[in-house]
Design goal:
The chain is an alpha/beta fold. It has a single domain (15-236), classed as Aldolase class I (TIM Barrel). The protein is built from twelve helices and eight strands. The chain has helices at residues 32-42, 66-78, 95-107, 126-140, 153-156, 162-172, 186-196, 213-219, 229-241, 246-262, 267-279, 296-308, and strands at residues 15-18, 51-52, 88-89, 112-115, 146-151, 176-181, 204-207, 223-226. The protein has a five-stranded parallel β-sheet. It has a three-stranded parallel β-sheet with strand order 2-1-8. The chain is globular, with a radius of gyration of 18 Å. The two termini are 23 Å apart.
């Protein structure tokens, strides 16, 4: 399959990313070697992804112990994961914690980080959010840092305005590498791409829905970072590899159907259930409270839907 995306220097490559689920030990701690192994799977032909984004929402990162989040980049490095194919989530309600998480990523060799805004205090001003991101960048103090802003107002309740994003990009240049848009609204992604210039201006917008890949690529998106590509990355990659026509239309319809199936369940629980079926390892069914595994009926419905696909 030919390269669909130019690979930028000094930052994460563009393409299809999975917002990686986290393997857990029986005590709820992160299985660090297991995470590294799983990220390798995601980037295999079977996984279908160009990269992995661990320690974000789908990773249950906000439920993990801080010590696990700090240790995770070292496990990825020990596992030989390449730095240009990993974007590590380092957002936290405390800017000081985000600084420590970001330093841990950089110390392990990973300069690409995905950063939620501080999400406890509600309705902050753009000036306050600018202060949060600028404080992070200045305290970390490394030019090789590449920050991907994380726009997920449904979960964080803190939207990032277009004007804030363009201001940060103007102030910090290549350090502000791009943005993940998890709104599920392609018009929001379009607004960020048009305001920043998208990949033509070295600003990488990743919509969080692989269904948007063809339309996004056409206007300058960098690919996708999606929770459902944990299971369906290969479907998305296959659809993109086809020439326009009936076969590609059918492949894209299958991507949309898979995404629609996953939307009927808690996405994290569904992705872990599929991983358990794929590997035969029921340890994948572990989730951190307050999340719970799929019920028996939900698992049966998911299996029927997968069989239909």
């Amino acid at each position: 399959m030919p390269e669909l995306f130019e690979q930028p220097s000094g930052k994460a490559r563009r393409g299809i990313y999975a917002a990686a689920i986290s393997p857990l030990n029986a005590d709820g701690s992160l299985n660090g070697p297991g995470l590294a192994e799983y990220c390798h799977y995601l980037m295999s032909d079977a996984g279908g992804c160009d990269g992995a984004a661990p320690l974000g929402t789908t990773s249950e990162s906000t439920s993990l112990a801080m010590k696990d989040r700090l240790a995770a980049p070292g496990y990825l490095a020990d596992g030989g994961l390449p730095s240009d194919r990993i974007i590590i989530g380092t957002g936290a309600p405390s800017v000081a914690d985000s600084v420590e998480l970001t330093r841990a990523a950089l110390d392990a060799g990973y300069n690409n980080v995905l950063v939620l805004p501080p999400y406890y205090f509600k309705n902050p001003s753009d000036e306050g959010l600018y202060a949060a991101y600028s404080t992070l960048i200045e305290r970390v103090g490394q030019d090789r840092l590449r920050v991907y802003l994380y726009h997920f107002p449904q979960m964080s309740t803190i939207p990032l305005s277009v004007s804030l994003v363009t201001r940060l990009k103007a102030a910090f240049g290549p350090v502000i590498a791009g943005l993940k848009d998890s709104t599920g609204d392609f018009e929001v992604s379009r607004a960020f791409i048009e305001a920043t210039g998208g990949i033509s201006n070295d600003f990488d917008v990743f919509p969080a829905n692989e269904v948007f890949l063809p339309e996004g690529i056409a206007i300058g998106s960098a690919g996708t970072i999606s929770g459902t590509t944990n299971a369906f990355g290969a479907l998305a990659k296959h659809a993109l590899s086809l020439e326009p026509g009936a076969e590609r239309d059918a492949a894209e319809a299958k991507v949309a159907a898979a995404r629609g199936l996953a939307a009927q369940f808690n996405n994290i629980a569904a992705m872990k259930q599929i991983a358990a079926w794929r590997t035969g390892n029921e340890d994948w069914l572990r989730l951190l409270p307050p999340l719970l595994p799929l019920s028996a009926d939900e698992a049966s419905d998911l299996k029927a839907g997968l069989d239909a696909l």
